[in-house]
Write a structure and sequence with these properties.
The chain has 118 residues and is of the alpha/beta class. The chain has a single domain, classed as Macrophage Migration Inhibitory Factor, CATH 3.30.429.10. The protein is built from two helices and six strands. The longest helix has 19 residues. The mean pLDDT is 94.
């Protein structure tokens, strides 16, 4: 059950955003073996002046945060980063330099479903 949060500059159309989310999900499915219906993804769009970034980043720059259950190997996490970056770069023509991915792994005691702590 990866939770996905994408922060990006406003201005991309619906098709672009759907393709972006599909690329992320496909990369997670390949790296972690998650089901197709295991989608908990959000896009947050910001005005350019509200998204400070390094001068070498373009308006395509995005931050992708993945919050995942603990226990995935370093290799699996590396694969997720590579697969997601590759898919976005190939299908949306975004430079890999404009894709920043961070993975958070809170302990299971910090997850709750239907009012129950995991």
């Amino acid at each position: 059950m990866p939770l996905v949060r994408v922060e990006m500059i406003k201005g991309k159309d619906r098709e672009y955003k759907k393709t972006l989310l599909d690329c992320i999900h496909e990369g997670l499915a390949e790296a972690f073996g998650i089901d197709d219906e295991d989608r908990f993804q959000r896009i947050y769009e910001l005005d350019g002046e509200d998204f400070e970034r390094a001068s070498d980043k373009t308006d395509d720059f995005m931050i992708i945060e993945l919050t995942i259950f603990p226990g995935r190997s370093t290799a699996q996490k590396g694969n997720a980063i590579r697969y997601i970056t590759s898919k976005i770069s190939e299908r949306l023509q975004v430079s890999p330099r404009d894709i920043f991915i961070v993975i958070n792994e809170p302990p299971m005691e910090n997850w709750g479903f239907a009012g129950q702590q995991r």
